[in-house]
Amino acid sequence: xxxxxxxxxxxxxxxxxxxxxxxxxxxxxxxxxxxxxxxxxxxxxxxxxxxxxxxxxxxxxxxxxxxxxxxxxxxxxxxxxxxxxxxxxxxxxxxxxxxxxxxxxxxxxxxxxxxxxxxxxxxxxxxxxxxxxxxxxxxxxxxxxxxxxxxxxxxxxxxxxxxxxxxxxxxxxxxxxxxxxxxxxxxxxxxxxxxxxxxxxxxxxxxxxxxxxxxxx
Length: 217
Hints:
Nuclear Transport Factor 2, Chain: A, elongated, Immunoglobulin-like, 13 strands, four-stranded antiparallel β-sheet, 3 domains, alpha+beta
């Protein structure tokens, strides 16, 4: 004996097909991470794209020139900056993830190895020592036709161990490297907690690049 199932009308069949189509589109859009309604979801999607995370957000950085929003994050033994794009009130898209491994023997860690200087993009420095509340970054430059000088910039009151240092304009070289940096961390009383060694020797030492007198800066 055949079962007596419910027979759908043509209108009900059309409604069911429409709902299935909408559900399928929703699943496809979710799988493609597009469009993304919030910056937080765009950050998570960006991390998945780079096989990074899920991370802990340390702070939100000032809006850079290219990306709409950037987050300083930490995941396990890695630090990173995740940047996302905004195209409308409820439309965000994935962006870029930059990472650096935390060195437990080095309380202060800059994000990138090389930097393009003086274009309003900050140098991000991460601290693994909670006693450090202020960070100073120094490196030498030689202005065109001038004597070598020491560039210095300080940020007080970092957020969750994240420091964003904006360099002052200087008529010097356009590129520098973290291997040339001297980093200093200070506690709430202004006492030095840790300072990285002054770079010496080839190929990035201050004395090698600018002469022995640079070590006295």
